[in-house]
Amino acid sequence: MFFKDKHCPTCGGSGTQVFTPLKPEERKALGTHRTDLWRCSAAGCRWYQPWGHQAGGGRLPEELQNPGADASV
After folding, report:
1. Which of 62, 48, 36 is nearest to 8 (CA)?
2. For 15, which of 4, 26, 45, 54 is 20 to 30 Å away at the CA?
3. Are 15 and 40 in contact (CB under 8 A)?
4. 40-62 confidence digits (pLDDT tens)
5. Is residue 19 a contact partner of residue 5, using CB atoms and an 8 Å limit?
6. Are the C-beta atoms of residues 30 and 23 closer than 8 Å to each other?
7. Which of 42, 46, 44, 17 is nearest to 30 (CA)?
8. Pick from 38, 45, 40: which is nearest to 68 by CA?
9. Whole-angstrom Cα distance, residue 67 to residue 57?
10. What is the C-alpha to C-alpha distance for residues 2 and 58, in angstroms, rounded to an integer?
């Protein structure tokens, strides 16, 4: 079964966040054509990772923060 909820290492807490596939403009900003990268959809989060594991993940540039971001984060 396929689940979109995953633990996000930058959001903290013991809960999970919904992850969505990277959009083409996000892949372009990273300079990759990989289609297996997903990002956390929490407000203000920039974390992305391959679907199967957190290793190989990172943060998108600040201009690609999710809407609702707190400016102090």
Report:
1. 48
2. 26
3. no
4. 999 889 999 998 888 889 999 99
5. yes
6. no
7. 46
8. 45
9. 20
10. 23
